[in-house]
Write a structure and sequence with these properties.
9-stranded mixed beta sheet; 468 residues; 15 helices; alpha/beta; globular
Length: 468
């Protein structure tokens, strides 16, 4: 164990200065890095440790390996968001907004910078259409009949196999991930109850809380490490909390991914205080590392975690296919589903089950991850080139969104209105909190097919920001 820790420390000693040179532009984009032999000789380390140095930098999206050529810098220097604003620890009743409706008007546009799902060019539409025809032929009644309330058996079997060691009978299908979250909150809370979320957080989840008349406590988060567990425990000690609702893996909008250790601690805290944890794990399949990050559900031994997922962000947004593994709350959630919607759509569930069973989903994901990682770099470079110099951005290791922090005097709600006339959209930062925070921030969807039109929109947005 001591030798491993020493090796880990050694490669970080070498990697950290190189990372700083890349981030500050001393090593510009496209620079060829030293060979493993040269790096080993210059720093007095083994070639295996030198390889770990490059693996570490590659995992952080700073460099890339080119076959038979070596390692190259692929990062454009940008200023990073160091810390999101700190919300106050008070419970706030979720409120509706004209702005949320305005952002949702971007659904269906060719280049929806305001939304958080991949563009049409990145989805296997022709293959899905073929699978849809096959499903209509194989399903009893061609898919027009009701499914059981639990959902399509094959889909539940494949979801159980896909992400976490679960049983088919532990999963309930839903109309997407947000519907799964809604069913969980409906099952666990009453009007006036208090829940805890991270901040900033997806405004879709805030809208669900509002519809259920729930009070919301926002926790401070770090753009890279995630939720403050100290702040969480302080709140769990002080007041009655009906549920925690978090996106621990590639959050929306910051894109952070909590470490396995912190996820384990999060589950332990919820178990200690007997507070259900609703985990939105919708973005975890789109990781830029070597493997899918573990979910909080992976550390759940008592059934305290209600694990929610979907293919709405990765494969077929319009199919509205999702699921939830509610743990010890299975019967409550199933009862709620029956009361509110009886069953889920038969034919689209069958299509997704087929995609998971045949391995086509993993094949699609491999291509999608490569495309999204490249597009993130395009967006970061465009922001560095076109936005005001004071702009700071996040560096997500997965997901679909990038968080942009502008000068403190700018108000992105006002800028959002200006941008409408130029057919440029984004999600204003104020929508991601109930406490009048993040007014100088915005969220962009980088999961579009990169082309000249997308770049022109970012350039136009940059011009508007500079003039404001």
């Amino acid at each position: 164990m001591e030798a491993v820790m020493e090796t880990d420390f050694l490669y970080r000693q070498v990697a950290d200065p190189i990372e700083q040179q890349i981030l500050t532009g001393i090593l510009p984009t496209g620079t060829k890095l030293w060979s493993l032999r040269t790096l080993s000789r210059e720093y007095g380390i083994s070639q295996n440790t030198a390889l770990n140095v490059y693996y570490y930098l590659e995992a952080k999206n700073l460099i890339e390996s080119r076959p038979q050529s070596g390692y190259y810098v692929k990062y454009s220097p940008i200023k990073k968001v160091q810390q999101a604003s700190l919300p106050s620890p008070r419970a706030v009743l979720a409120d509706d907004s004209y702005w949320v409706h305005s952002v949702y008007q971007n659904i269906g546009q060719d280049h929806p910078l305001a939304m958080a799902h991949p563009g049409e060019a990145l989805l296997p539409i022709a293959k899905l259409n073929k699978a849809l025809i096959q499903a209509s032929r194989s399903l009893q009644g061609s898919g027009v009949l009701y499914e059981k309330p639990e959902g399509n058996a094959e889909l539940r079997k494949q979801v159980a196999r896909w992400s976490i060691p679960l049983r088919e009978d532990e999963i309930i299908t839903t109309h997407g991930c947000l519907n799964a979250i809604s069913l969980c909150l409906l099952s666990l809370t009453q009007p006036g109850d208090t829940i805890i979320v991270e901040s900033p957080v997806s405004f879709g989840m805030l809208q669900v809380a509002k519809s259920l008349s729930l009070k919301v406590i926002e926790l401070p988060t770090h753009p890279e490490y995630g939720i403050s567990l100290l702040a969480l425990e302080r709140n769990l000690k002080k007041r009655r909390i009906a549920a925690c609702l978090f996106i621990p893996t590639f959050s929306n909008p910051l894109g952070f991914c909590m470490s396995d250790e912190d996820k384990w601690k999060l589950v332990q805290l919820c178990e200690k205080y007997q507070v259900p944890l609703i985990e939105n794990d919708i973005n975890a399949d789109v990781h830029f590392g070597k493997k899918r990050p573990k979910s909080c559900k992976s550390f759940d031994k008592s059934g305290i975690v209600l694990w929610c997922g979907s293919v709405s962000k990765t494969l077929a947004p319009g199919y509205r296919v999702g699921w939830v593994a509610p743990g010890r709350f299975y019967h409550e959630v199933l009862k709620t589903k029956i009361q509110h919607q009886i069953s889920s759509t038969s034919i689209t569930q069958e299509v997704i089950a087929h995609y998971l069973r045949t391995g086509r989903y993993e094949h699609h994901l491999r291509k999608l991850r490569v495309s999204l990682q490249a597009q993130l770099l395009h967006f970061q470079k465009a922001i560095a080139d076109y936005f005001p110099r004071s702009t700071k951005v996040t560096s997500p290791q997965g997901g679909f969104t990038i968080w942009v922090q502008l000068h403190k005097d700018l108000n992105t709600l006002e800028i959002f209105e200006q941008c409408k006339k130029y057919d440029v959209s984004f999600a204003p930062g104020a929508l991601f909190s109930l406490q009048h925070l993040y007014s100088n921030c915005l969220r962009l969807n980088f999961s579009l097919g990169w082309n000249s039109e997308v770049e022109e929109k970012l350039e136009r947005l940059g011009e508007i920001l500079k003039k404001t």
